[in-house]
Write the structure tokens for this entry.
Amino acid sequence: KNEVEQSPQNLTAQEGEFITINCSYSVGISALHWLQQHPGGGIVSLFMLSSGKKKHGRLIATINIQEKHSSLHITASHPRDSAVYICAVRSTGNQFYFGTGTSLTVIP
Amino acid sequence: GAGVSQSPSNKVTEKGKDVELRCDPISGHTALYWYRQRLGQGLEFLIYFQGNSAPDKSGLPSDRFSAERTGESVSTLTIQRTQQEDSAVYLCASARGSVGKLFFGSGTQLSVL
């Protein structure tokens, strides 16, 4: 059983659509990270959350600690948003667990 | 420099040889992490350094893997007697503190022939 589960695994959207990627975890956490990996492998940290909600441009990340669930939303999606989005948690035991990623393709 | 720097960017080695990978974190970042990503797989945590505390080595896959970091400076990841399954991109990240936002290096692509 994976400590971090992401859904969907693959997602194709039309440009302009609202996108949601979900992450559920089974361990107690001190922080949750949303990462973006572009073709070619470069990884960018989008958000680090321990509670509530954060917004950066068209990206919004929320976390519900009681439900052990986080969502990453992309508003007005664009082809340049095409990437793999990875959810990672740092447990209270100071271990990192990663989801397998959601591959997003935004079609013009 | 402004970001996390890793070297070399690419390394090709023969099975059985030792390799050393380097990570230069952002100045002032006390936390440093090593990960690897094998082809088609997700990120895998290897080791975590926080300041002068004992490192968290729980992700190291075997005793052929070791890492060092002196204080809050450069870290080296050493893989002894490399095997083909060690082929992966090895990523380093640093953060300001134990729960800070992660900043990633561009990785070292290791190919073991």
Notes: Chain A touches chain B at residues 30-31, 33, 35, 41-45, 47-48, 50, 86, 88, 90, 94-101 (CB under 8 Å). The first strand of chain A starts at residue 4 and ends at 7.
